[in-house]
Amino acid sequence: MDIHGGGLDLVFPHHENEIAQSEAYTGTEPFSRFWVHNGTLGYGEEKMSKSLGNVFTIRAALDVFTPESLRLFFVSSHYRSPLIFADESVYSQGRAIDRLKNAMNASSGMGEEIDHNSYKNAFEESMDDDLNTPKALGVIFDLAREINRKASKGGNVETAQAALADLLSVLGIDISSKTKHSGELEPYIDLLIRLRTDLRDAKQFAMADKIRDELSVLGIKLEDNEGATRWLKE
Questions:
Q1: What global pTM score does this model have?
Q2: 213 vs 208: CA distance, rounded Å
Q3: What is the structure's pLDDT at 234?
Q4: Cα 212 from Cα 216, distance rounded (Å)
Q5: How far apart, in Å, are the Cα atoms of 82 and each of 23, 39, 62, 105, 172?
Q6: What domains, with CATH codes, occur in the chain?
Q7: Distance CA 206, CA 154 (A)
Q8: Number of Cα atoms under 13 Å in the Cβ half of residue 140
Q9: 26: Cα within 13 Å, side-chain hemisphere
Q10: Beta bridge partners of 224
Q11: What are the C-alpha distances in Å from 112 to residues 140, 146, 159, 220?
């Protein structure tokens, strides 16, 4: 086969045994031309796995975060590197998405155009380097900054904005959608959760419970676990 995927924790003994068995049976070498081993995903201090019971579904994550924020979070790390899932890390990607949207919505003038081909070439070189998505994202944000800079001086940024959209589409990130999403409520819900935590620390449990109950009426469920509070849309 051309490409074989799997987690880094499966290299030995699982995949080494698979190579030995398959090549012995078929008489064909190599068993796979390319091995794509991804790093483990952690949640807190432990690896996320079904056996540990610390797994939550994509559907549950999409009730809290925008699809674009989640995708940007995952591609901001190289696929071979371990990654720790943290709510604040995903929220910060939402703010990064806003910066990209600002570049896409910048007003174009009649001045000099941006040489977007150099950014496209740098992006392709990064992706050719073992799918180096963090480096590719760096190119994307460099282009976004240049678009904003040129637009502020009356430059023509239309072709550069089209190039920016094309590069983002390679990573499956669509920032053109105007659809409202629960992710826009994140800062306000987080503020209420912090207020609830302060009230509980002050032993004002009645007021803390009232915040929880009011959020529940709005379809927001709070889960307290080891000193941290996570919210989900019911």
A1: 0.70
A2: 9
A3: 57
A4: 6
A5: 30, 4, 22, 34, 21
A6: 53-78+87-178 (1.20.120.640), 182-233 (no CATH)
A7: 56
A8: 29
A9: 12
A10: 229
A11: 20, 12, 11, 49
- Which tens digits make up the pLDDT trace of 146-202? 999 999 989 999 999 999 999 999 999 988 754 444 455 777 888 888 889 889 889
SS (HEC) of the chain? CCEEEEEHHHHHHHHHHHHHHHHHHHCCCCCCCEEEEECCEEECCEECCHHHCCCCCHHHHHCCCCHHHHHHHHHCCCCCCCEEECHHHHHHHHHHHHHHHHHHCCCCCCCCECCHHHHHHHHHHHHHCCCCHHHHHHHHHHHHHHHHHHHHCCCECHHHHHHHHHHHHHCCCCCCCCCCCHHHHHHHHHHHHHHHHHHHHCCCHHHHHHHHHHHHHCCEEEEEECCEEEEEEC
What is the CB neighbour count within 10 angstroms for residue 183? 20
Task: Write out the two tokens for 85.
Answer: 């899932």
The tokens for 16 are 């080494």
Q: Which of 63, 75, 201, 179 is nearest to 131 (CA)?
A: 75
pLDDT above 70 covers what percent of the chain?
A: 92
Query: From CA 162, how far away is CA 140, in angstroms rounded?
Result: 12
